[in-house]
Amino acid sequence: MKKQKLHIPREYAEIPLPAVAACVGRVIAEHRQRYNVQSEQGVYAAGVSGKMLFLADSGEALPAVGDWVVLIPSDSATAVIETVLPRKSALIRRLSGRTDSGQLIAANLNAAFIVMAGGEDFNINRMERYLSIIHEGGIKPYLVLNKSDLFDAETRKNYIAAIGERHPDLPLITLSAKSGEGVIDIIKTLIPGNTYCFLGSSGVGKSTLINLIAGEERLPTRPLSDASSKGVHTTTFRELVELNNGSYLIDTPGLREVGLTAADAGIEQTFGDIVAIAEHCRFRDCSHLNEPGCAVRAAISDGRLSPDKFENYLRLRKESEHYQMEDYRRRRQERQFTNILREYKRIKKKT
Ligand SMILES: Nc1nc2c(ncn2[C@@H]2O[C@H](COP(=O)(O)OP(=O)(O)OP(=O)(O)O)[C@@H](O)[C@H]2O)c(=O)[nH]1
Ligand SMILES: [Mg+2]
Q1: Largest CB tally within 10 Å, which of 99, 149, 307, 343?
Q2: Which ligand is nearest to the CA of 254?
Q3: pLDDT tens across 215-228, in order?
Q4: 220 CA → ligand 2 middle, Å
């Protein structure tokens, strides 16, 4: 196994280990609950311990790419993950097709790049979904408008204006991963030791961009489908790439849906302007629908607030509340079953 220098953060390097052979490592790839973990001894193919699997009450309790973990090697190539070390940040979305379950996309990120292409992929409402989960996770967002070689100067101006109108403070980088134009602007933001995640629909060019930044073909890429002009879901698992400058880039498969879990704080941060305007409503619990003295409706009618932005804000808040209700219901049901099982065991012991 090839030994590699690993920059383990001091707070993780100094934790007491459960066994002599145990070590600390970082998850660098995840493939359906199988993980590649980089340790100072080299890369192990690892699964999680039975105890961790049993105790996990949601997918968020299991490791994800970017996590620092304690692992016990079984031999020179395989290991078992015993513990996930406390996360500094986490990017979580609602699991596709579920109303009460979250999926951890990646952990310990410093920043996330939302990659958007022009044309059909250009969608500010979806961008606000990404922003909400990124802010909720305590991560800094950037917007990357890719494929600039495919649009003219006028179209570029319109895209930039549309984003700036809704989110004037969001750092925006326009570039072409094909021609290389503007790529220096993203490279300049990368700090050694920091971890960055690339998010966006299939086919927007996430892997192409990471390859370009890395200076070599580290990840597979594929042309869009001829029939639909959409991405063909080339990247199928999450993977962390280390750059020569010491920063880490995480590639992710294109997401079909960006559902929210409980993301109230992230939504409030994303829509900070609406929250600030609402403070001037006459009633503290104003629903902004028909109450007199509503500052939000006034802002919409005099053009200070985009009605589309307000509608998206309401939609995302509803989704976050719905998730919390479903999650509460599921946990209560689980508790009831646990109590029934405990009572059954108690009675059985007596008889
Ligand atoms: N014209 C143009 N094509 C690009 C650009 N960036 C990427 N592409 C092309 O878009 C296609 C899809 O790129 P990928 O990098 O595989 O896209 P992805 O976002 O990683 O897609 P998934 O892995 O499916 O999520 C490839 O054919 C790339 O060559 C760009 O800036 N301009
Ligand atoms: Mg890809």
Answers
A1: 99
A2: 1
A3: 988 898 988 888 77
A4: 7
The H or E element containing residue 310 is: helix 307-350
Strands 140-146, 172-174: pairing kind: parallel
- Say whether both 229 and 281 belong to one domain: no
Q: What is the mean pLDDT of residues 84-104?
A: 88
Find the mean pLDDT for residues 283-301: 94
What is the model's pLDDT at position 16? Answer: 84
Distances in Å between the Cα of 13 and the Cα atoms of 17, 82, 263 are 10, 16, 31
User: How many CB atoms neighbour CB 350 within 10 A?
Assistant: 6
Q: Are 166 and 242 found together in one domain?
A: yes
Q: Is residue 342 part of a domain?
A: no
Amino acid in position 142 = Y
Please give the pLDDT value at position 3: 61
Q: In this structure, what CATH number is given to the domain that contains residue 50?
A: 2.40.50.140
What is residue 150's DSSP assignment?
G
Token duo for residue 74: 């079984």
- Is the predicted pLDDT of residue 2 greater than 70, yes or no? no
Rounded to an integer, what distance in angstroms lies between the CA atom of residue 169 and that of residue 157? Answer: 17
State the pairing for strand pair 90-94/102-107: antiparallel
Identify whether the C-beta of residue 91 lies closer than 8 Å to the C-beta of residue 112: yes
Shortest CA distance to 71 belongs to which of 108, 30, 101, 27?
27
Helix (H, G, I), strand (E, B) or coil at 194: coil
Secondary structure letter of residue 77 according to DSSP: S
Say what percent of the chain tops pLDDT 70: 99
Give, for ligand 1, the residue of 105, 152, 208 to mutate: max count of ligand atoms closer than 8 Å to Cβ: 208
Q: Which of 52, 84, 116 is the last residue of a domain?
A: 84
Q: Which amino acid is at 229?
A: S
Q: What is the DSSP string of 248-300?
A: EEEE-PPPS--B-SS-HHHHHHHTHHHHHHHTTSSSTT--SSS-TT-HHHHHH
Domain count, the chain: 3
Query: Which residues form the domain of 269?
Result: 264-335
Task: Determine the pLDDT at residue 257.
Answer: 87
Please identify, among 28, 49, 84, the residue that sits at the C-terminal boundary of a domain.
84
Mean pLDDT of 100-119: 93
Q: Kindly state if the Cβ of 221 falls inside 6 Å of ligand 1.
A: yes
